[in-house]
């Protein structure tokens, strides 16, 4: 965290801890469509856009649940809380939201440039034309609630009955969100009625706004290019998965071929050397060819002797024959 951010956080903590809070009991409500929570007076009759047919104020309004839902939709109301004060005055807090090209362009007041902030403040201070029912705002300031930068403006509305208002407005996640306290003054006040919300209501409204929380305040970059970023990330993950699959398949294929290749290249087992004693080394076993020659020698000598006897017998026979012929 930077030093400036740390100092800002400390100052905000001191401001909140040092500010007074209303002792009016509050109940937490969730505005699902706006992804936010807010604490509203526990004694109030509160409802969102989906109105229960048993909602107590339907009879007072002279409406059905469907008619009140349409009224809220036409006026961009997403939550409404109404209660009666001890002096019979009616007070309500209205949560509205609008979204259009301008809100999406500015997207977040936290990052708005100073000339944009000045322009919005000027709109509040000049908001007094007859076309706007004579509404007049004053005492405009900036406050931080739930991580969002809100404009805080007091005002009064000149109509058949004067209504004092205390409005908080922000632009977050491309939406313009307004949380407005409306104080309906009783007729008994006449011309002397005050032109601002009572100190008690002002303190209550400030306490309500300190309870506001958003599920997420998105960055402008992700809001505008989030789809492209997610598509790029998905494409990258898909490419990596394909590469991993290819590598695994290749490894398994090579693994399957490995036994056959190893059998072709394995060397013949070497004969283990047998250690011989000196006597065995001196009495070496003659080669097999020499051994065969020694075994065949007697047979060859006998065959030669027999052949010699036969030749001798033949020669003797020849000599006897010759002698007989000579005698004749």
Topology:
Blueprint: H1 3-18, E1 26-31, E2 36-41, E3 45-48, H2 57-61, H3 65-74, E4 77-84, E5 90-98, H4 101-106, H5 114-125, E6 136-145, E7 148-157, E8 163-172, E9 175-184, H6 199-210, E10 213-214, H7 220-265, H8 278-282, H9 288-327
Antiparallel strand pairs: 1-2, 2-10, 3-4, 4-5, 5-9, 6-7, 7-8, 8-9
Structure description:
This protein is an alpha+beta fold and 328 residues long. It contains nine helices and ten strands. The strands form two sheets. Strands 3-4-5-9-8-7-6 form a seven-stranded antiparallel beta sheet, sandwiched between helices. Strand 8 and strand 9 (175-184) form a beta hairpin. The longest helix is centred in the C-terminal third of the chain and has 46 residues, at 220-265. The radius of gyration is 55 Å and the shape is rod-shaped.
The average pLDDT value, as a whole number, equals: 77
Tell me, briefly, the overall form.
rod-shaped
Rg calculated over all Cα atoms: 55 Å
How can the largest sheet be summarized?
A: 7 strands, antiparallel
Detail the poorly predicted runs: 1-18
| Helicity, as a percent range | 40-55%
Alpha-beta classification? alpha+beta
Beta-strand level of the residues, as a percent range?
15-25%
How many strand segments?
10
For the terminal residues, how far apart are their CA atoms? Answer: 152 Å
Q: Name the helix and strand elements from N-terminus to C-terminus, one letter apiece.
A: HEEEHHEEHHEEEEHEHHH
| Strand order in the sheet with the most strands | 3-4-5-9-8-7-6
Give the helix tally.
Answer: 9
């Amino acid at each position: 965290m930077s030093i400036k951010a740390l100092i800002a956080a400390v100052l905000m903590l001191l401001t909140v801890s040092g500010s007074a809070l209303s002792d009016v009991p509050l109940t937490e409500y969730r505005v699902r469509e706006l992804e936010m929570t807010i604490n509203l007076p526990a004694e109030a009759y509160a409802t969102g856009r989906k109105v229960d047919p048993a909602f107590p104020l339907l009879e007072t309004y002279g409406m059905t649940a469907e008619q009140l839902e349409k009224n809220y939709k036409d006026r961009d109301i997403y939550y409404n809380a109404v209660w009666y004060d001890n002096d019979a005055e009616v007070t309500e807090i209205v949560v509205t939201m609008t979204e259009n090209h301008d809100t999406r362009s500015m997207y977040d007041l936290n990052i708005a440039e100073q000339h944009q902030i000045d322009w919005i403040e000027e709109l509040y201070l000049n908001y007094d034309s007859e076309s706007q029912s004579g509404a007049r705002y004053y005492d405009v300031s900036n406050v931080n609630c739930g991580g969002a930068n809100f404009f805080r403006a007091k005002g009064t509305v000149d109509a058949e009955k004067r209504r004092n208002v205390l409005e908080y407005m922000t632009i977050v996640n491309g939406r313009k969100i307004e949380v407005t306290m409306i104080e309906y003054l009783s007729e008994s006040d006449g011309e002397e009625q005050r032109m601002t919300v009572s100190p008690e209501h002002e303190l209550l409204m400030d306490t309500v706004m300190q309870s506001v929380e958003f599920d997420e305040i998105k960055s402008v970059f992700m809001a505008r290019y989030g789809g492209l970023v997610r598509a790029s990330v998905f494409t990258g993950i898909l490419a990596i998965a394909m590469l991993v699959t290819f590598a695994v398949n290749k490894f398994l294929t090579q693994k399957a071929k490995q036994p056959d290749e190893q059998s072709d290249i394995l060397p013949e087992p070497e004969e283990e050397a047998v250690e011989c004693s000196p006597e065995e080394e001196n009495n070496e076993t003659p080669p097999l060819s020499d051994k065969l020659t020694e075994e065949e020698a007697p047979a060859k000598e006998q065959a030669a002797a027999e052949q010699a006897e036969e030749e001798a017998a033949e020669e003797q026979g020849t000599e006897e024959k010759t002698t007989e012929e000579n005698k004749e």
